[in-house]
């Protein structure tokens, strides 16, 4: 199981998620809303614009995305962070 990096900022995570089809739809204060409109259903995720994102928050974001994409969190982390 690869370790999740602990120095990922919110903006950096948004750039990494663009490769999976997520686009920035809005920003309110220090939170960025990303949307993935690829069928079968749209998926919204909110990323805090913090540097770095807390590891528990990052873990929850990755769990949510991996459930939506129906892949394991390890596969998602490997593809995003080149682990």
Structure description:
- The relative contact order is 0.24.
- The protein is 39% helix and 22% strand.
- The mean pLDDT is 90.
- The radius of gyration is 12 Å and the shape is globular.
- With 83 residues, it is an alpha+beta fold.
- The chain has a single domain (10-81), classed as Metal Transport, Frataxin, Chain A (2-Layer Sandwich), CATH 3.30.920.
- A hairpin with a 2-residue loop joins strand 1 (23-28) and strand 2.
- Helix 2 (55-69) packs across helix 3.
- The chain has helices at residues 10-17, 55-69, 73-81; strands at 23-28, 31-36, 43-48.
Features:
single chain, 83 residues, alpha+beta, Metal Transport, Frataxin, Chain A, 3 helices, 39% helix
Largest sheet: 3 strands, antiparallel
CATH topology: Metal Transport, Frataxin, Chain A
CATH structural architecture: 2-Layer Sandwich
What separation lies between the terminal Cα atoms?
Answer: 10 Å
Shape: globular
Number of strands: 3
The unreliable regions are none
How many helices? The count is: 3
Q: So what's the CATH class?
A: Alpha Beta
* Helix/strand structural class: alpha+beta
Q: Spell the H/E element sequence.
A: HEEEHH
Instruction: Give the strand order of the largest sheet, numbering strands 1, 2, ... along the chain.
Output: 1-2-3
